[in-house]
From TrEMBL, chain A:
Any one GO CC term of the record: endomembrane system
Family: Belongs to the GTR/RAG GTP-binding protein family.
Keyword match Nucleotide-binding: yes
Classification via Gene3D superfamilies: 3.30.450.190, P-loop containing nucleotide triphosphate hydrolases (3.40.50.300)
Protein name: GTP-binding protein
Claim: Metal-binding is one of the keywords in the record: no
Alphabetized InterPro entries for the sequence: Gtr1_RagA, P-loop_NTPase, RagA/B
From TrEMBL, chain B:
Protein name (record): Roadblock/LAMTOR2 domain-containing protein
Annotated transmembrane regions: none
Family: Belongs to the GAMAD family.
GO biological process: positive regulation of TOR signaling
Domain Roadblock/LAMTOR2: 17-89
Gene3D superfamilies noted in UniProt: Dynein light chain 2a, cytoplasmic
Amino acid sequence: MKKKVLLMGKSGSGKTSMRSIIFSNYIARDTRRLGATIEVEHASVRFLGNLVLNLWDCGGQHSFMENYFTSQRDHIFRNVEVLIYVFDVESREIDADMEYYQMCIDAIKQNSKDAKVFCLIHKMDLVHEDLRDRIFEDRVAQIQHRSSPIQTTCFRTSIWDETLYQAWSSIVYALIPNVRLLEAHLDKFCSAADADEIILFEKTTFLVISHVSKWTTEDGSAVAAPLDSHRFEKISNIIKQFKISCMKAHAQFQAMEIRNGRVSVYLDMLTANTYLMMVVSDPDIQSRAALANIAAARRHFERLEESNIR
Amino acid sequence: MLKPKALGQVLASVCSGGVHTALVMNMEGGLLAFSGPSERDAVLHAAMATNAWTVYEKNGTPMRSILVEIESGAVLTVRVTPSLALCLISDESIELGILRQKGFTLAAYLEAPLKQIQA
């Protein structure tokens, strides 16, 4: 199953850097050596085994952008599943940026009106912390005004923290077929294994595909645990960095088990394309039992994935 | 799938009248579930019991159960499935016959559900 994903935005806004970090195991520092993208760079990324994302990383320089809206318009904007538009928050030419964006959205409206549109307000680390909310909301308002009636989802991102993973997780979530079915099965697994939280990651990018939380108190009643709502993308970020460090030391990261006084966390491969993280807060549950359950779930999810591929 | 809490409760139900610890372990000595006063002791018991078991098995005798009398009571290890075993540890207040009865009944009860997890 091939899905076309357009990655557009002005020159220097960070598109190739983002792509390199998420899909090519770059760490944030490595992106310094990337140069300007010439024309359109096509990258075919395998995701979840049978899903191929055709990433069109469109060079943002003025001359290329002109091409996109004239001679190459139909070729580029047809059959698009997802448009990701990147805005550099530091740009001095906000109006010119919006003009380009308008042209993209108009082309999308004509050629792929069912496409999902994601707008990333990027390089947020360069904005002072106190001003971030206001600037973000201001840009979002402008974007949504220009995009209507198309609905856009906007994210603030930076390659230096976990916000990049949050945005891209949401983007790929929108592309995965049968994601609801997967979630239903994860939910059952979570209840059956007496786990508190289960997170499913894609294997190479470590983007969160899905998660189920069932935190309960001693007497069994559900509790909204005062947990960090950004923990999923933070975990993606941390584990991905760790995985890259392991690769650099010529070691293959396979699995991890962390126990402390309050919680046990098991991170292991679930299927050929996914990783599972299981969080158990009940201290009486032995790690062998949790691992036995993960092994049982593995067989189940492998069968599920196979039937999905067919 | 194994419901660890449920297994823990079943093991707790046998811990009465002299039996102070009950545990389920795999044949490598890994503890799957236990009911008893101390987790650390339970982990140790599991390792020692399977150690003794594998020594006998290596010497050619396929084992069904091992009952050991010790200074402070007795230890009964019963095979439940080809890869799992049940271990009951008691103090001196209980007779060996009753201990065996408890052990074998519980093992028979757990055999069917635990076999499903292996497949």
